[in-house]
Amino acid sequence: MDLHATAVISPEARLGSGVRVGPYAVIEADTVVGDGTEIRAHAVVKRYTILGSGNRIHEHAVLGGEPQDLGFDGSPTRLVIGDRNVIREFVTVHRASKPGSATVIGSDCFLMAGCHVAHDCVLGNRVILANGALLSGHISVGDRVFLSGGVLSHQFCRIGRLAFLSGGTRAPMDCLPFVITEGHPARARAVNVVGLRRAGWKAPEVRAVKEAFRILVRSGLLLETALAQMAELHDPNVDEMIAFCRESKRGFHRNAVPEPDDDEGGATA
Fold first, then answer.
1. What tens digit of pLDDT does each residue of 220-230 get?
2. Is residue 174 among the annotated active site residues?
3. Which CATH architecture does the domain made up of 2-138 adopt?
4. Which of 26, 78, 170, 178 lies 20 to 30 Å (CA to CA) from residue 264?
């Protein structure tokens, strides 16, 4: 391990092999830092935080802070972070608000400077939050989602797998998987074709989701009628969209923007 002399590390913290801790960083008690993780200058890892291996925590990030919830009673809730994540400057991630629960970030995520992930959020793998993206409490974010700069998402919302939210979007409801959502308030714009291709999707898979999007968003059909027509496509990704819609408790962004000239706008890494 490479631990700077000015770092403050509790003897009750568990550090794996190859951990590097920079000047004036703080690692509190009851924490776990996995092998090969780097915690840079002035970053803070607060108690009840579990970090996997190979993470890079940049300057002044604060992980595992107490939730900003008036009902929080000080219980030993947790923040659990997977492997190989990059968490940039001034990111804040809070632990959960209820006893026995956890805020969770998956693996291979990239949280850019100034992001906030509130209590009880669950992020999948390969999620990207650009600068200043803000997630309220209890939000679920699917794998390979891209939130552009300044996105604001309401508590208890869900953001489906491979969704793309454009910069400055205000999302008070669920955001459909595989879809570009944008605006203030948000509306469904188009299928996230570039993101799907980058994820390795083949042309027939993309075509099926584009047809499902047309039925759901642009046809003007009642929701149940649209979902029934989507089911006739017999495609597993479309079935995922159907399930997402049926499971929505807050409703989802469906109102379409005018047909774009090129529906391949937006991308997700």
1. 999 999 999 99
2. no
3. 3 Solenoid (2.160)
4. 170
